[in-house]
Amino acid sequence: MIKISQLSKKYKNADNYSVYQLDLNIGDGEIFGLLGPNGAGKTTLISMLSSLIKPSSGSFTINGLTYQKNQKKLKQLIGIVPQEYALYPTLTAYENLHYLGSMYGLHGKILKEKIELQLQTLGLEKFAHKRVETFSGGMKRRVNLMASILHEPKVLFLDEPTVGVDVQSKNVIIQYLKQLNEQGTTIVYTSHHLNEAETFCTKVAIIDKGEIVVKGTPKELVMHYRDAHNLEDVFLTLTGKKLRDHA
Ligand SMILES: Nc1ncnc2c1ncn2[C@@H]1O[C@H](COP(=O)(O)OP(=O)(O)OP(=O)(O)O)[C@@H](O)[C@H]1O
Question: Model-level pTM?
Fold first, then answer.
């Protein structure tokens, strides 16, 4: 589904590469977790894959398509849930979804029904006509998610979709993503929640300093490191306990 070859990114004026000569294949139907400490390059990688930023070198394909030649097709094929809310605060949840859905060519009864179904599934039907600026973090995260899947993408990229939300919202989001995956959506997500990733992901890659340190199923990784009881132990073994502050 996704084939990444020697992908690198060095931001303008930066001293180091944020992603360096990265090779990775992500199969159809996976829930793939990109894990790593602060500044590891997770957002940079997912932003390149969702064409929000341009690689410095290397290449990747999604379903055999490159961005250079298939921008329109890829826009329909993928969904992007960025870390920042991509919503209009003064519009209601319904108005936001209607506007963003129409950007993907959805209209009329079909769009209305899709919005209503999603609001219901993600527990927001009662708040459909309230302004998004009045919502809690968890509610905004759920609207952000809905906005990116109205066009039923085959691949969904999510950058920390459960950051800053309460346990209930997190649970609803993860259950919903699992449901989408069962219906055939490939999911690529970044997270700092290792417990969540361990049960949610079919495969993970631990990234540090722009390179993949290890990849595999969570079970394989925990089995491989003798003293590890869980994915967090594997993570700390590989990335160390030093703080990774960066500016
Ligand atoms: N726009 C930018 N310009 C310059 N450097 C950047 C830019 N964005 C990110 N970086 C640098 O690239 C490196 C990787 O950052 P990135 O945000 O991809 O990491 P991350 O793994 O997503 O971190 P976090 O977990 O903190 O979100 C960091 O050193 C960061 O400072």
Answer: 0.93
| Series of mean pLDDT values for 10-residue runs along the chain (247 residues) | 97 96 98 95 96 95 92 91 90 96 92 95 95 94 93 95 88 93 96 93 96 96 92 91 66
The residue with tokens 């209601």 is 92
CA of residue 59 to ligand 1 center, whole Å: 20
Distance CA 80, CA 65 (A): 17
Q: Which of these CATH numbers, 3.40.50.300, 3.40.50.720, 3.30.559.10, 1.20.120.450, describes 2-239?
A: 3.40.50.300
CA 243 – ligand 1 centroid, Å: 15
Tell me the ipTM for this assembly. 0.98
Q: Say yes or no: CB of residue 99 within 6 Å of ligand 1.
A: no
Query: Helices 93-103 and 137-149, interaxial angle, to 10°?
Result: 30
Tell me if 43 CB under 6 Å of ligand 1: yes
Å from CA of 209 to ligand 1 middle: 10
Per-domain boundaries in the chain:
2-239
Among 191, 18, 153, 180, CA closest to 73: 153
